[in-house]
Fold:
Amino acid sequence: MGRLLSLSLLGITLALLGEKFLVLRNRLKASREVESIDLLNCHLIKGIEAGSEDIDILPNGLAFFSVGLKFPGLHSFESERSGGLLMMDLNEATPRALELRISRGFNLASFNPHGISTFIDDDDTIYLFVVNHLELKITVEIFKYEEEQNSLLHIKTIRHELLPSVNDIVAVGPAHFYATNDHYFSDTFLKYLETYFNLHWANVVYYSPDEVKVVAEGFDTANGISISPDKKYDPCRNMLNFPQSWWFIYVADMLAHEIHVFEKHANMNLTQLKVLKLDTLVDNLSIDPSSGDIWVGCHPNGQKLFVYDPNNPPSSEVLRIQNILTETPTVTTVYANNGSVLQGSSVASVHAGKLLIGTLYHRALYCEL
Structure:
């Protein structure tokens, strides 16, 4: 009787694990292939060889890149060198990616930058927020950009128990931000279990020097996060008669293939307004301030991304989403590649007819639209 019970429990366990494996393959879009959609005026950016996971562009055309991210279990084309931050001036005739010098005293040897976000204060001070994956902990680093020296002055390091697995960040003040936790756990093995069993414990946290709180939860894998542009640039707001005081937060749920739209309240809490379902793994989100369109770096096939095969590399995909607040948003695939040019696109940012596409661990692309 005891053996029969043991066999029954084993069978149930194996059936459960098998079901979860099939669900995981679907969440990863493991069978999906893409046909290339090319843009005519593009070239690879010199100096970016091992990933440019996130890109943020200031209104004046200065673009910041986080490069060289190393993640447990992910492929890396440059395993020895630490990560860094680059800047490109899109106003130049032939823009170049230049490494930003960081002030003395900051630990560059272990720097491992992930999501980034800029904030311009009322006195025109430019702050750069960077998610930093150290070996045993995650921090958010705040820098002040000094344009004349083309350098970064380290201001502050932030750690908090509600920020155990930060992926991306959007700054809303000089020391204030929303951050996505892509997992509930910080331990790598527990993260794998959390993903495999599809626990939906990922969340969004609001941080300020005075208050830290969870403002949205229940995500499969909360990833990219962004905020609506200034209301004078947001046509959807006027078209749908939203109050002028409303601002919106957009959150990508990577393995759920969704973008969540939230209303941001004066107390910084969030209320979900809608969810847009897509057919791809959505990574970072960027907003075109001139139109309010959302540009998304996507992974058509997550299995190729996480289980790297140089003979069958991960593909890339860039989506443009127009009028997301309406009943029928327009979703356009602007760029797609099977990995022959660009592998594992994670972000797409636009400025004045120029498009930058970054990747998790490969190259970066500059295009003129």
